[in-house]
Design brief:
Elements (H helix, E strand, L loop, with lengths): L1 E6 L7 E8 L3 H9 L1 H7 L6 E7 L6 E7 L5 E12 L3 E8 L8 E11 L2 E9 L4 H21 L3
Antiparallel strand pairs: 1-2, 2-8, 3-4, 4-5, 5-6, 6-7, 7-8
Helix pairs in contact: 1-2
Length: about 150
């Protein structure tokens, strides 16, 4: 059901791409990314909780989350929406407030496409800088999408 594809570009800007099909209409999957109450129920891999401080899904609007891991570690995350096409596409910056990528602006693109009554979601996470960062984010996004698939059944 899920396909993960990673490519390391020649210009040293590796890109993470994940395509996954969910058993929910694009409107429902899109809302799961833009509604704070929905986001807090699933965003983050298993064992990680998401606290949404702010989300304003419009071009120029900001978001701010804290990811809290099972050991109580807090990992702040923020960014700005660059492109918003309801139920079809989100493009936003992604800036961690900790670790090796602290302060580094990366970019996330989410494309939502209706497929056989469900949604094919394609994530592209760019400007991660290293293959290690791509792998770390692959684990995080894949785990998050597993949690989203479960949440969409409720």
């Amino acid at each position: 059901m899920a396909q993960a594809q990673k490519t390391d570009a020649v210009d040293q800007n590796p890109v993470l791409r994940i395509t996954r099909t969910f058993d929910a209409k694009p409107e429902r999957v899109y809302a799961a990314f833009t509604n704070p109450g929905d986001l807090e129920k699933w965003f983050g891999p298993e064992g990680v909780n998401c606290i949404v401080h702010d989300i304003d899904p419009r071009p120029g609007g900001a978001y701010s989350f804290t990811m809290r891991d099972a050991k109580g570690g807090e990992h702040p995350l923020s960014g700005v929406f660059e492109e918003v096409t309801p139920n079809e596409k989100l493009v936003y910056t992604w800036v961690w407030g900790f670790g090796t990528l602290e302060g580094v602006e990366t970019r996330v693109t989410l494309d939502f496409a209706g497929r056989d009554g469900g949604t094919e979601l394609t994530l592209t996470h760019e400007l991660l800088g290293t293959a290690d960062a791509v792998e770390m984010h692959n684990v995080g996004w894949t785990g998050s999408f597993n949690c989203l698939a479960i949440e969409l059944t409720h």
